[in-house]
Amino acid sequence: GVRVTDDTGLSSVQDVEIEVTLGKSWQVTEVDDARAPFCAVLDCEGRPGIFYTWNDQFVADKLVFRRASNALGTAWGPRHEFVDATASTQAPSTAALIVGKPALLHGINTGTENTWHFTQSSDGIGTAWSSPINTSVQLNNSKFVSLSQVENLPSFAHSESFLGFFAATDNLGSAWLAPQEVGVYARESELAPMLGRPAIAYHVVSGSVEALAYVSANDAKGAFWNQPVLVDAVGIAGRNPQLIEAAGRPAIAYSDPV
């Protein structure tokens, strides 16, 4: 379902049909010959750039990035590998453009280390990358995070015992502030800028109830937050939320299996 709400996130529940008038025909290009459990695509200075988990069936999974050689994505550059083959990359990852440069937040679980790491390209096309920076945020039970740019800083939403908003102290992600507690534990969440302020759509699970909720900050940096709004609590709702700003209002796409 899709919910379009006012700028505070208040909403009446009403399904909206979307008619797609473009994208009727597609060009399919094979980028790699290995399975990719994780995949994300960004516009990297006019050409698609993709992050994915690459497994060549002989070594452990590797997180890689490739940028197309042209705007249509019919040819691709070499792989850039982020972590060595000994590091587990099974935890899902999330990617975003931070000040115009592709960036990646991914989990590393080596047995002794179980945290989210941030890495960013030094340019807009992904030719050189920083070493992964440990955010010190534990993976815990929530393996769903959402990376976005807030006030030109890398930020992400993640659940520990609560839904938290995490922001870096600089655009390189070299250090991270303590989390802002913005809601109850969320199984899945999506962080996005909304009218110049961070906002989060998230999937709430409480007993047999699964619902879609929304919360937004009162300021541009995400230091203060409004009370969460329950958007859809009918049946089982709120899975895989995707949040964007549409016509100056928050719009959420999500799955409802019932």
Description of the molecule:
By secondary structure, the chain is mostly beta strands. The chain is 0% helix and 47% strand. It is built from no helices and 19 strands. The strands form 5 sheets. A 4-stranded antiparallel sheet has the order 2-3-4-5, with no helix packed on it. Strand 10 and strand 11 form a beta hairpin. It is globular, with a radius of gyration of 18 Å. The model has no long low-confidence stretch (mean pLDDT 84).
Portion of residues within helices: under 10%
Mean pLDDT: 84
The stretches of 5 or more residues where confidence is low (pLDDT under 50) are none
How much is the radius of gyration in Å?
18 Å
Q: Characterize the largest beta sheet: strand count, sense, and whether it forms a barrel.
A: 4 strands, antiparallel
Count of β-strands: 19
Instruction: Estimate the global geometry from the Cα principal axes.
Output: globular
Strand content: over 45%
- Going across the biggest sheet, name each strand in turn: 2-3-4-5
Number of helices: 0
Order of helices and strands: EEEEEEEEEEEEEEEEEEE
Would you tell me the structural class of the helices and strands? mainly beta
**Termini gap:** 11 Å
Give a quick rundown of the structure:
The chain is an all-beta fold.
Question: What keywords describe this structure?
Answer:
258 residues, mainly beta, four-stranded antiparallel beta sheet, 19 strands, 0% helix, 47% strand, globular
